[in-house]
């Protein structure tokens, strides 16, 4: 290891200690205990050799320490007692190693669980402005694959800790037996690590590149499935397929390079290990002139030391392969935390009066979207926003739901500023039916209740049934094979567009909301489906606050009040009848759609 690698080692030591605290320390203590028992167990073979006059008792301090231990235990150092102690010590070592591995698995599982939950939760808390500039494939890759690889890095790091402890302990025991030979072996081990350090740097760069390529591949695959129908219908699938193939080929090249780097390290370690053992035996027997039997115990310690030294670079290389994921996961968690949505503390329980926009301005970067907007939405009223595409209708809804914050001005709900309200509690009172229908690959019941686990199962079933009825879904739900338990496929592919939209309405009614938003909810529907939804809106009128965005002006005739937006400004406002009577922008829009008063 060079200085850079040592800094990396201690950087991650500090990181894992902060992450797991006492569990990580207990793991280190257990690792020390395991190698202590192993060293003592091997040392107990020395008296056996001593009794055969292979090693004299005065040769080193280790034998003297064993004599002191037996005296303290008031045991005679005979063959039977030594064999019993060897059995006891190695049994204790086996239990320590078992607990060590069990603790490693437990900590790894805890980290994986905590990181995945934390990332998923942070995604839900994200500032929407940050989210729309984020690569969703990247986030998906972080949550599914990279967290696994990052936890794999932790497992490798645990093995590195064990290696480091074992090397230090075995070298310490070896020093007691022969200072010179141990020093030579240590120098040889360090030289071996210095030789392969350049491979570590290459591996680290490859790891970061692999993480980036994985994110790109994930994004391409997600886009392929999302646009599957379009790609198939227009015979454009081959183009995206070629792009995915390029990503796969790039990923494969990096993986091959990673494998080759691991292979080179393994080969170098295998060759160097043989040379080291041969060199030690040659030095001790041929140069020093000692009998080969006198090196037997030392050889056992060297054998274990060399195995650990040989394993260390390979394990470190494997750690570096996964360290890119560890770096990206921790960096992403930090970014998600830094870009969390800022919300007030005041809990919202019920919409009682009105929502008021006061001099609202909003911009996307340098482009101003809304200019000095003033409007009022009263409780249980039906309000409509109309205007050309890009007029600012959807942005106004985004401000109402609080996913965007105004650049200037203030938004009040029941005379409380949005910045003071706990937005999560406020949004629980909002239902949102979008033009892009949100349907999950699950049963009709779960799509309506969104896997409600807070209520009693019978209550959930009752509420689902009532919501289905109010949304006029009974005709196709009850006729389906498994009724409420029918799986409707990925994004509701087994249902028509109109049926999906009615399921989406049922979901919002299930929430028992105070405010229900329809954002172009009927724009892509046939006349019959639109009629069902219009009937639902009519039945809900005056029972909750309804906010409509519509291009089809026929769908807003029954609105209590209409805001006409043009180029980010409120150009006109009033009832349908009042606006139609004037020589207004609204009347021109009606005429284009052949609508009369």
Q: What's the mean pLDDT score?
A: 81
CATH topology description of the largest domain: ABC transporter transmembrane region fold
Number of strands: 10
Placed side by side, the strands forming the largest sheet appear as 6-7-8-3-9-10
Report the sheet-strand fraction.
Answer: 5-15%
Q: Could you describe the 3D structure shown?
A:
- With 597 residues, the protein is α/β, with parallel strands linked by helices.
- It has 2 domains: 5-106 and 139-335, Up-down Bundle (ABC transporter transmembrane region fold); 345-429 and 544-596, Rossmann fold (3-Layer(aba) Sandwich).
- It contains 21 helices and 10 strands.
- Helix 7 runs antiparallel to helix 9.
State the main characteristics:
single chain, 597 residues, ABC transporter transmembrane region fold, Rossmann fold, 2 domains, four-stranded antiparallel sheet, 21 helices, 10 strands
Quick description:
With 597 residues, the chain is α/β, with parallel strands linked by helices. The chain contains 21 helices and 10 strands.
Write the layout of secondary structure elements.
Blueprint: H1 3-20, H2 22-43, H3 45-51, H4 61-72, H5 79-124, H6 128-131, H7 136-177, H8 179-195, H9 197-226, H10 228-233, H11 237-287, H12 296-338, E1 354-364, E2 367-378, E3 382-386, H13 393-401, E4 408-413, E5 416-417, H14 423-427, E6 430-433, H15 444-449, H16 457-470, H17 474-477, H18 497-510, E7 515-519, H19 527-540, E8 545-549, E9 561-566, E10 569-574, H20 576-581, H21 585-592
Parallel strand pairs: 3-8, 3-9, 6-7, 7-8
Antiparallel strand pairs: 1-2, 1-4, 4-5, 9-10
Helix pairs in contact: 2-5, 2-7, 5-7, 5-12, 7-8, 7-9, 7-12, 8-11, 8-12, 9-11, 9-12, 11-12, 16-18, 18-19
